[in-house]
Amino acid sequence: MTRTEYPWLLPSAMADPELPGDQGGRSRRTVRDWIVDITAFLFAAGIGLLAAATIEADRTTSDGVLFVDCLIGVVACCALWVRRRWPVGVAVGLILVSTVEPVASGALLVALFGVAVHRPFRPAAAIGALALVTAPVQPYLRPDPGSSLIESTVVGVLLSLLVLSWGMVVRSRRQLVVTLRERARRAETEAGLRAEQAQRLAREAIAREMHDVLAHRLTLLSVHAGALEFRPDAPPAEVARAAGVIRDSAHEALQDLREIIGVLRSPGESDGDRPQPTLATLDELIAESRLAGMKVTLDSGITDPAAAPAATGRTVYRIAQEGLTNARKHAPGAEVTVMVTGGPGDGLTIEVRNPAPTEPFEQVPGSGQGLIGLTERATLAGGHLDHGPAPDGGFGIRAWLPWSP
């Protein structure tokens, strides 16, 4: 919160967001300001005329005194035109003048209202206390023939309290309006930030999904294209099989990419036309890897893979997919073991291990972001994932994921 956002906190300015003319605000009055000021002037002049008529009716008052009273009343009413710039000074001056001049009473009420509206509680209360203390002075010095001292004092005190209370109510309402506007602006800003954060999280999720999906396909392309490049004398049957794997992997990669783009274009939460992989589709992943020439052993102790939670099964599938992809990159020709155990209540444990490579191969570039994404995915699912080299020179991935009974 800053003082410029909440102008009523400024001690030396008229802190009213709707009434300009303070030291820190606009110098020109609006149409509404002119209407308010003219109305206040006419109100003060009307009260002053009534007071002047009462003084004139008192035959003990001379014409000279009446003339001075009217002149002071005009000056008091004109002083209201500068109350926007100096509300406290004008109010204090009118309080002192009103102690001896009944004609300035109307201008005093308007000045008290302005202080209550445009000043915090403490200065407004101080000005109000000064007005209440001096309320008995004027009827004592210049008593009204039609009322007693007590009656005149009570009326003066009640009018001052009424005007001050009304002004404070108006000030509170204006502060409430300013606060609500500020909250609306803040809520709009926060909504924009939440939307940006949601977009960022969606982009990160899509990036992880693209890596998990496409890395598996593109690795097949790289491995088999490299084999064709470095073994131009391979048998025609092996060349045809490698070319078929390349073609199928390219088609699958394009299909997966279309699904991800479809999710981006879809206004809802659709995941595409094809079902997402689960634990039940792990066999298809193993079969696809074997068809590509990998040696994969699957040891699954899950009797009913379809009963596993969809999110957990999808995470297991992605871990196995990333493990097979890494084995294809860094240990081609080595036999990979995929082991899945567990059940409801115990959770799911998946291990993907491969020994050290036994034959030379061309290193496929990789950044290690896949394992980082898998670790994050497992943590978000409520489990954990460990990976690292084995003592025999191989590599292993082990993860545990919860499975509620």
UniProtKB/TrEMBL annotation:
SUPFAM superfamilies linked: ATPase domain of HSP90 chaperone/DNA topoisomerase II/histidine kinase
Reaction(s) catalysed (UniProt annotation): ATP + protein L-histidine = ADP + protein N-phospho-L-histidine
Transmembrane residue ranges: 34-53, 65-82, 88-117, 153-170
Start and end residues of each DUF7134 domain: 33-174
Lineage: Bacteria, Bacillati, Actinomycetota, Actinomycetes, Kitasatosporales
Alphabetized UniProt keyword annotations: ATP-binding, Kinase, Membrane, Nucleotide-binding, Phosphoprotein, Transferase, Transmembrane, Transmembrane helix, Two-component regulatory system
Protein name: histidine kinase
GO MF entries: ATP binding; phosphorelay sensor kinase activity; protein dimerization activity
Domain Signal transduction histidine kinase subgroup 3 dimerisation and phosphoacceptor: 203-268
A Pfam family assignment: DUF7134
Sequence ranges assigned to domain Histidine kinase/HSP90-like ATPase in this UniProt record: 314-403
Annotated Gene Ontology cellular component terms: membrane
Enzyme Commission number, as recorded: 2.7.13.3
Keyword Kinase: yes
Top-level lineage group: Bacteria
